């Protein structure tokens, strides 16, 4: 065959090797051509099969969806009607952050408010009257969901944020706002109030992991704080307002009902945030100004009051005489043993003002002030023990 294709090769005896090479080349070309052809054929077949499989799947989906729609329409009494697009069954998408924002950190409790209606309601509830709102302080402004609206109303406000990434975004979303990089637990609110010319109005969607600590920090600086409007987990909010003889009654109930008048203003569902928390939340007002007179009349060292409540609530199920035994034996107190009226009670049965009385007895403070008794008489439906 090679001789026929290249006739000149026959005459040259030295070209025998060349003839063999040419023959081998033509043979391998034929084999490769066949292989390539079968590959191409296999590819075409595979693609055709995939398309038909997709079609089958799509048909199945459509049938399932239509069947589901008919079922639901039947349940709702709508037997007939125009065919709706299949997307009607899809759940609404949760709100997302704009593409250029960072990934929220769980360790910083970064659940950002995403519902403008709740933000509007939150800001509307504020009543700071300082010049330009210079005493308005936002704790943890994050990417500026609240700040952008707050700043329009209070251009002299200050934000306190720990995350530098959030601060970078804030400098773009609310360029005019002043934000300090700090930990909200480390701020000296008394000093800040002095610098801003009076008690502060705090507003915050508090990071959950430090929410209680942040509130106790504010209580420690109660005279430097006018009010705190804060979002808390509903569970924590309910503990602030719980009354004696209930499961939720505890240390926060005693401290904040004495130091600020806590009030739940409204609740927010998880859908108001991105990412969604798996708990309900509440917007709470703590009115430190309204409770100022009472706070001053308490006449106890707040640390003593805290020490006592912490001790007794650590042993919720124990009677006071047992849980306080160690304090009574360790400290030089005005009393050797608890008065009868308290001894057999459990901490959850004792009202906030009675904890003040107890602190004064145990830690040797002044006589329980008469006007204080009057102020509290009947407020919790009980009369003062004499
Ligand atoms: C629940 S997010 C609220 C963000 C924003 N205010 C909003 O509502 O969308 C809490 C914010 O507090 C910040 N944060 C967390 N721990 C903090 C701390 N110890 N001190 C200051 N800011 C903190 C987080 O970085 C985050 O921006």
TrEMBL record:
The keyword Methyltransferase applies. It is an enzyme of class 2 (transferase). CDD domains: AdoMet_MTases (cd02440). Coiled coil: none annotated. Keywords: Methyltransferase, RNA-binding, rRNA processing, S-adenosyl-L-methionine, Transferase. PANTHER family: DIMETHYLADENOSINE TRANSFERASE (PTHR11727), RRNA ADENINE N(6)-METHYLTRANSFERASE (PTHR11727:SF18). This is rRNA adenine N(6)-methyltransferase. It comes from Durusdinium trenchii.
């Amino acid at each position: 065959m090679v001789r026929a294709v290249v006739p000149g090769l026959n005459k040259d005896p030295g070209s025998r090797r060349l003839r063999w090479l040419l023959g081998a080349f033509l043979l391998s070309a034929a084999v490769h051509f066949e292989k390539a052809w079968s590959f191409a054929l296999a590819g075409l077949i595979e693609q055709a099969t995939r398309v038909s499989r997709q079609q089958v799947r799509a048909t199945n989906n459509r049938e399932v969806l239509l069947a589901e729609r008919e079922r639901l329409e039947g349940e709702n009494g709508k037997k007939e009607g125009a065919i709706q697009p299949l997307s009607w069954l899809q759940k609404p998408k949760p709100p997302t952050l704009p593409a250029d924002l960072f990934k929220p950190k769980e360790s910083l409790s970064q659940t950002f408010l995403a519902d403008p209606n709740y933000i509007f309601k939150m800001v509307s509830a504020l009543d700071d009257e300082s010049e330009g709102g210079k005493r308005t302080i936002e704790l943890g402004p994050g990417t500026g969901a609240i700040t952008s609206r707050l700043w329009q109303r209070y251009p002299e406000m200050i934000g306190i944020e720990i995350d530098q990434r959030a601060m970078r975004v804030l400098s773009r979303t609310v360029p005019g706002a002043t934000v300090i990089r700090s930990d909200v637990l480390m701020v000296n609110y008394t000093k800040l109030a002095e610098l801003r010319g009076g008690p502060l109005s705090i507003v915050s969607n508090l990071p959950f992991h430090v929410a209680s600590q942040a509130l106790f920090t504010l209580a420690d600086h109660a005279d430097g704080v006018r009010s705190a409007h804060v979002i808390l987990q509903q569970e924590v909010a309910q503990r602030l307002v719980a009354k004696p003889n209930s499961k939720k009654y505890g240390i926060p109930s005693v401290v904040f009902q004495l130091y600020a008048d806590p009030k739940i203003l409204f609740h927010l569902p998880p859908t108001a945030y991105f990412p969604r928390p798996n708990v309900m939340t509440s917007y709470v007002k703590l009115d430190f100004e309204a409770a100022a007179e009472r706070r001053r009349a308490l006449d106890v060292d707040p640390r003593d009051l805290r020490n006592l409540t912490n001790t007794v609530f650590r042993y919720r199920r124990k009677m006071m005489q047992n849980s306080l035994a160690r304090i009574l034996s360790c400290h030089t107190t005005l009393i050797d043993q608890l008065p009868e009226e308290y001894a057999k009670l459990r901490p959850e049965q004792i009202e906030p003002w009675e904890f003040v009385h107890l602190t004064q007895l145990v830690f040797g403070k002044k006589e329980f002030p008469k006007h204080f008794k009057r102020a509290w008489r009947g407020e919790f439906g009980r009369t003062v023990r004499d």
